[in-house]
C-alpha cells in the first residue's frame, strides 16, 4: 500500500530460512491462542511483520460487499494510514486485488510496484507480499507486508505466510463466532428480563419505563415507546443517556408535533407497519427530515448517528412504536438489530394488549362494584350509620360488600359480607348477594330467615363463589340487636362506659353449606355501637387471626367521644394494614340517645333458631 522503487535483485531471504520459519511458527501459535480481534491485529502487524523483516504491515477486512477497511497498520505516517482506513475494492492496490481475487500477490521492485499499483509506489526498492484471508465461505480480508529489499521471498516462507493467513482467517472466524454467541446469549437474557419486567404489572406505563431504562445505554443512547391513541402518537416512556437530551426531545415534540415536512419517521412506520432503519444519520438525512432551520438545529444537537424504529403490533394493527437512537460513532444499527428490536417489540406489544384487555375488564368490574356498593347510607332517629370501604393496592376489584337500611318500627338492618376472589366474577356475586339480602329482608328481616333463604339460593343455583356474611337486625323499641353469621368475623359492641364486647365467633359455615342457622339476640342500648368488618382490616400475613381481632377490640374505644364518621375513620387508620393486601369494609351502627325506647334494657342475651 506504498510505492517501491528500484530493479529486482537476486532472490534471497531477509534472514536465514530456518530462523524465519521458526519465527513464523511462533506467530502461528499466537494466532491460535488469540481471543480478540485486537490480539490478532497485534500478532499480524508486529510479530508476523518482524518475522519476515517487513517494515510496513497492514491487516484489512472486507467491509460490506464493495469496500474494505484497515483494522491495523504499522509503519505508515498517521495521515497516510488514515487515508487508507476505508477504500473501495476496485481501488488499484494489492490488498483490494487480494480480497477481490482470493489470490496471493507478490510484487518485487519499485518499477513493478509503480506499474501495477501506482497509488502505493514511491518508497524505493521493496518487495510487497499480500495474502488473502480465506474464510469458510468467502474472503474475509488480506494481510499486506512490505519488505525493504527487492528480492522475492523464499518459496517455503511464502507457503508459511499462506498458512499464517489461513490461520489468521480461522482465528477471526472463531472470534466472530464466539462474539456472535455471546451477543445472542446476552440478547436472550435481556429479552427474558424484559419479559419479566413487562409481565410484572398491568401498569403498562411503569413497566415500559423499566424496559427503556434497561435498554439505555446497553443497546441505545435513546429509547422511546409511543402508543397510538385516537389516531395520534402519545409518548408512553423514554430514556436517554443525557438528561439534557431528554428535555430537548420533549421540547421538540411540543414545538414540532407533526414531524417532518414530508411525514415523520414515526408516522411512516405507523402507516406502513414496516420497520424503519437509518444506519447512518448523515447531513443529507437531517436536511430531508428537518421541517425548518430550528428543527434542523435541534436534530443536530441530538447528535444521532443511527436510528431504528419498529412497530408494536396488537391483533394485526400498529398499536405503538419502539424507537432506538444511537449517538455513539461505533454503534450503527443493522438488519440484525432490526430483528432483535422486533423481538422486544412483540413483548412490549403483548404487554400493551394485556393492559388494554385488563382495563376493559376492570371497567366492567368497577361498574358492577358501583352497582353493589351503596353510594350513601343514612340512619334515622334511632340509629346512626357510618361506613368505610378501602380497596387494596391491587389492580383488581375485590369482593367485600356492605349495606344498611331501615325497615320501620324502630328497626334497622345492617350486613357486611365477603365474596372470595377478585375481578368481574366477584363483582357479579357481590351484586347478586346484596340484592338478595335486601329482597329476603323485605319478606322476613330476622337473621335466621334471611340466612336460610340465602343458603337455599346458593345451593339451588350452584354458586361457585364462596361467600361469608354477618347480618344484624337492630330494634330500638325492644332495645336489642339480633345477629347471625355465615362463616364471617364476629361483630363487636362498644358501650358508652368504654367497655368492648366481642360477640361469639360464627357458629356456621359460609353460605350454601349449612342446614339451618342460629342467631344470637343481645341488649343494645342508647350509645352502644356495633361494628361489622371484613377480614382485610384484621388479617395480616405474619400473624394469626386472633391477634388481629384483639387489636381491633382494643381500638374500639375510638368509637366513643366523637362523631361516628370521624371515629370510624380513626379506627380504620389505627388498625389497618399499610401493605393493603386486601380490601377493607367496615360498618358501624350506633344507637342514638333519643328515639324509640320501648323495652330498653329489658332484653338479655338469648339464642334463637
The main sheet orders its strands as 3-2-1-6-5-4
**Secondary structure category:** alpha+beta
The major β-sheet equals: 6 strands, antiparallel
- State the share of residues found in helices, binned by percent: 40-55%
| Shape label | elongated
Assembly state: single chain
**Distance separating the two termini:** 108 Å
β-strand percent reads 15-25%
Counting DSSP E segments of at least 2 residues, the number of strands comes to 22
Number of helices: 16
Mean pLDDT: 84
- Regions with pLDDT < 50 over 5+ consecutive residues? 2-15, 258-262, 598-604
Rg (C-alpha, Å): 41 Å
Q: What does it look like?
A:
This protein is an alpha+beta fold and 609 residues long. It contains 16 helices and 22 strands. The model is unreliable at 2-15, 258-262 and 598-604 (pLDDT under 50).
Secondary-structure map:
Blueprint: H1 17-33, H2 37-52, E1 56-63, E2 67-74, H3 78-83, E3 86-88, H4 94-101, E4 105-108, H5 110-116, E5 127-134, E6 139-147, H6 155-199, H7 204-215, E7 222-229, E8 232-240, H8 243-255, H9 265-272, E9 276-278, H10 283-289, H11 293-302, E10 306-314, E11 317-326, H12 335-372, E12 383-390, E13 400-408, E14 411-419, H13 424-443, H14 447-460, E15 467-475, E16 480-486, E17 492-494, E18 500-502, E19 519-523, E20 529-533, H15 545-555, H16 564-575, E21 584-591, E22 606-608
Annotation keywords:
elongated; alpha+beta; disordered N terminus; six-stranded antiparallel β-sheet; 609 residues
